[in-house]
């Protein structure tokens, strides 16, 4: 049977390319090719640009209330079509249905709902200057480009487009080549909800298409979710036309567990922070620092739960709670890191091997892996692995663990578990990271701004603060008297 072929989405509808070039998409949970997608060639790119310019003119002229009504209709449709969309995400990403059906569509819809609420509330201010006065206007930037990673494709498309669209911008979105369908589904839903054609466009392809978006003079902003190295390339491209940038990049986040922590909650957090979405989450707490006095109990519980509670298998089976990595290439990369961990002297306490669950032997599964006896200089402790690999380290002194937690180029996230309220805040205030949790981990409601310190990012997503990253401030000075001139 011929593969289903998907096209780019331009000016409110699918658009065929002229070269006929396509790429294939694989279900990582089985290793099977599931459909093919047309690459955005030159004709598609130019059409997308024109469409986004026209879309911007129409959309930015509408009131915030009008935009909000359309976004809210899309929110309702996303929630109504939850199961269909969750299935798309399971097949594209290899994550378990158990997660996608609860989290992926819902958190995307939440973000659109949050910004739909803010759209009519956008306002400037005015200040009296003793007769004369000035006022400010929050104006949209124009055409924004979004470039997505593959771990939460639909959610990332929503998180980028929600603030952009609420503020009156149009968008050209490029999903990861590995997970292209979610963004197309979002485009269809936005159109059905009444969004004018051209406001949300999807272009498909690999890094080269992302590179075009970064360099293109007709685009006013680029927002990427991806690796630090890719972020640097995008920022260099954006610099050629001085575009605004938002960078949601990688991390190697510390999770610090003090001796007075509620042990079962701390263990649950460490498990979630390393094994949820099979470890493919940017904010994961992959450096787990445990106080020496708590360590024996902590590690016993972590190993017991890792060995007994994780069910890898058919990603569409609701019982499965642990999925497959995004590709064979990524699985091999994760396995290389595991080998390096052993070579450099860490103790492989559990996992460390590839898995072939019955019935889905072709999937790219790696067992949840726990390393103990880790030291700060090991590769597995320093580099982002983006797979189910937990590195456990021990500490005794508070100042020392803060110093070690901060000893990294990354600054995306951090967590602290302790019952001592003063210590919790004292420690978190000294941690160099943009997203921090106290007695929680990886919770990311749309009300809360997220983004990285240091090389983990620039700008923010979610929360009211992100409005500043999708608007520009215009100041208007109004003269009320005569003009005095010396000549
Ligand atoms: P990549 O950096 O490989 O890719 C991200 C996106 O950039 C993809 O759409 C990719 O296209 C595109 N791209 C690749 N090269 C270029 C280029 N030269 N110019 C412009 N765009 C380009 O990241 P992954 O997709 O592998 O995602 C994993 C990474 O994302 C991890 O580092 C993770 O930490 C980070 N991430 C960060 C999050 C955050 O909010 N801070 C959230 C989720 C993930 P293609 O894939 O089609 O080649």
Automatic annotation (TrEMBL):
Catalytic class of the enzyme: oxidoreductase
Keyword Cytoplasm recorded: no
Domain Aldehyde dehydrogenase: 18-476
Family annotation (Pfam families): Aldedh (PF00171)
Reactions that this protein is recorded to catalyse: betaine aldehyde + NAD(+) + H2O = glycine betaine + NADH + 2 H(+); betaine aldehyde + NADP(+) + H2O = glycine betaine + NADPH + 2 H(+)
Keywords, comma-separated and alphabetical: Metal-binding, NAD, Oxidation, Oxidoreductase, Potassium
List of catalytic residues: 248
GO BP field: glycine betaine biosynthetic process from choline
A molecular function (GO) term: metal ion binding
EC number: 1.2.1.8
Keyword Metal-binding: yes
Family as reported in the entry's similarity comment: Belongs to the aldehyde dehydrogenase family.
Subunit structure: Dimer of dimers.
Protein name: Betaine-aldehyde dehydrogenase
Taxonomy of the source species: Bacteria, Pseudomonadati, Pseudomonadota, Gammaproteobacteria, Oceanospirillales
């Amino acid at each position: 049977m011929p593969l289903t072929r998907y096209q780019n989405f331009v000016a409110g509808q699918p658009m065929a390319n002229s070269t006929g070039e396509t790429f294939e998409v694989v279900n990582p949970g089985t290793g099977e090719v599931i459909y093919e997608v047309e690459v955005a060639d030159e004709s598609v790119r130019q059409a997308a640009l024109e469409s986004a310019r026209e879309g911007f003119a129409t959309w930015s002229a509408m009131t915030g209330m009008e935009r909000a009504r359309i976004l809210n209709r899309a929110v309702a449709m996303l929630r109504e079509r939850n199961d269909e969309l969750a299935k798309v995400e399971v097949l594209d990403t290899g994550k378990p249905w158990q997660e996608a059906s609860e989290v992926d569509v819902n958190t995307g819809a939440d973000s659109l709902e949050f910004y739909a609420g803010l759209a009519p509330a956008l306002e400037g201010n005015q200040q009296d200057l003793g007769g004369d006065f000035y006022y400010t206007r929050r104006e949209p930037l124009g055409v924004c480009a979004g470039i997505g990673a593959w771990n939460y494709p639909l959610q990332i498309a929503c998180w980028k487009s929600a603030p952009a669209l609420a503020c009156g911008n149009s968008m050209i979105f490029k999903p990861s080549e590995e997970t292209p369908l979610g963004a197309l589904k979002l485009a269809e839903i936005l159109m059905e909800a009444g969004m004018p054609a051209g406001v949300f466009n999807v272009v498909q392809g690999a890094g080269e298409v992302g590179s075009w978006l970064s360099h293109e003079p007709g685009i006013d902003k680029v927002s990427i979710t991806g690796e630090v190295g890719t972020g640097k390339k995008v920022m260099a491209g954006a610099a050629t036309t001085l575009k605004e940038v938002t960078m949601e990049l990688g991390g190697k986040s510390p999770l610090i567990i003090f001796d007075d922590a509620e042990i079962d909650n701390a263990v649950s957090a460490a498990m979630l922070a390393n094994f949820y979405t099979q470890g493919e989450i940017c904010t994961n707490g992959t450096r787990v620092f445990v106080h020496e006095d708590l360590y024996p109990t902590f590690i016993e519980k972590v190993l017991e739960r890792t060995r007994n509670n994780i069910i890898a298998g058919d990603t569409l089976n609701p019982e499965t709670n642990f999925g497959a990595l995004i590709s064979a290439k990524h699985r091999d990369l994760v396995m290389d890191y595991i080998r390096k961990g052993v070579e450099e002297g860490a103790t492989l306490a559990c996992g460390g091997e590839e898995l072939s669950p019955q019935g889905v032997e072709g999937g790219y599964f790696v067992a949840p892996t726990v390393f103990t006896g880790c030291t700060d200089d090991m590769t597995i402790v320093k580099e982002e692995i983006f797979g189910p690999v937990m590195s456990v380290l021990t500490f005794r002194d508070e100042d020392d663990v803060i110093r070690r937690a901060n000893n990294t180029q990354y600054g995306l996230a951090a967590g602290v578990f302790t019952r001592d309220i003063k210590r919790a805040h004292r420690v978190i205030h000294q941690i160099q990271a943009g997203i921090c949790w106290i007695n929680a981990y990886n919770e990311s409601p749309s009300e809360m701004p997220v983004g990285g310190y240091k090389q983990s990012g620039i700008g923010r997503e979610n929360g009211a603060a992100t409005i500043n990253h999708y608007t520009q401030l215009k100041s208007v000075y109004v003269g009320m008297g005569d003009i005095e001139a010396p000549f």
